[in-house]
């Protein structure tokens, strides 16, 4: 019975990023690939464990356009979060750890804003895991 209760709790919270962040156990057991929140959004939590071999994605060609499109409207001087700007490489690099955390857990973009495609996620997360080079 105890297991059943835990399982239904798990199902009901699904992959809500803020909840999963509270417990590694919940992260591992409830938030694997395909984890789905009852609200309908899902977070793949698909950050690569290490930088893959080969050339990392390019900041200028691959990453900057995604950040501009998906984050730039709010993280702008006249946007909702003017204290965290991502308009230049230096700004993104300085905040790379929190950007990685927010992206990994699907906390940003916030609910209601258009999210990244799986390709865009892969590019940005891979670039971050590769040390966020200015390439
Ligand atoms: C719809 C507007 C909006 C969009 C789009 C958006 N953000 Fe945010 N972001 C906010 C707001 C508002 C805050 C401050 C409040 C909060 O943390 O929820 C914030 C906070 C943050 C923080 C700091 C969080 C913390 O707790 O330290 C980071 C990092 C961040 N955003 C990264 C991003 C990235 C990366 C993207 C694009 C992939 C993005 N945001 C897209 C509105 C937005």
What does this structure look like?
This protein is mainly α and 135 residues long. It folds into 2 domains: 1-42, no CATH class; 46-135, Cytochrome Bc1 Complex, Chain D, domain 2 (Orthogonal Bundle), CATH 1.10.760. 46% of the residues lie in helices and 0% in strands. The protein has 7 helices and no strands. Helix 4 (59-70) packs across helix 7 and helix 6 (96-104) packs antiparallel against helix 7. The longest helix has 12 residues, at 2-13. The chain is globular, with a radius of gyration of 16 Å. The chain starts with a helix and ends in a 6-residue tail after the last helix. The relative contact order is 0.17. Mean pLDDT is 80; it is low at 4-40.
Write the layout of secondary structure elements.
Layout: H1 2-13, H2 17-20, H3 24-30, H4 59-70, H5 89-94, H6 96-104, H7 118-129
Helix pairs in contact: 4-7, 6-7
The structure holds heme C.
Heme C (HEC) binds near residues 99, 102 and 109.
Q: What key phrases describe this protein's structure?
A:
single chain, binds heme C, Cytochrome Bc1 Complex, Chain D, domain 2, mainly alpha, 135 residues
Structural class: mainly alpha
Average pLDDT, all residues:
80
Helix content: 40-55%
> What is the overall shape?
globular
Strand content: under 5%
Q: Please trace the helix and strand order, writing H or E for each element.
A: HHHHHHH
Contiguous low-pLDDT stretches (5 residues minimum) are 4-40
Taking Cα atoms only, what radius of gyration do you get, to the nearest Å?
16 Å
Overall CATH architecture of the largest domain: Orthogonal Bundle
The total tally of domains equals: 2
* CATH topology-level fold name of the largest domain: Cytochrome Bc1 Complex, Chain D, domain 2
The number of helical elements comes to 7
Beta-strand segment tally: 0
């Amino acid at each position: 019975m105890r297991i059943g209760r835990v399982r239904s709790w798990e199902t009901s919270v699904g992959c809500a990023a803020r909840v999963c962040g509270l417990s590694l156990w919940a992260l591992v057991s409830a938030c694997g690939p395909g984890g789905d929140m009852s609200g309908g959004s899902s977070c793949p939590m698909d950050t690569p464990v290490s930088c893959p071999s080969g050339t990392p994605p390019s900041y200028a060609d691959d990453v900057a356009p995604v950040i501009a499109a998906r984050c730039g409207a709010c993280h702008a001087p006249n946007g909702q979060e003017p204290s965290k700007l991502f308009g230049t490489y230096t700004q993104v690099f300085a905040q790379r750890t929190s950007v990685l955390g927010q992206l990994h857990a699907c906390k940003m973009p916030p609910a209601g804003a258009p999210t990244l495609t799986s390709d865009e996620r892969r590019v940005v997360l891979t670039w971050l895991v590769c040390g966020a080079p200015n390439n």
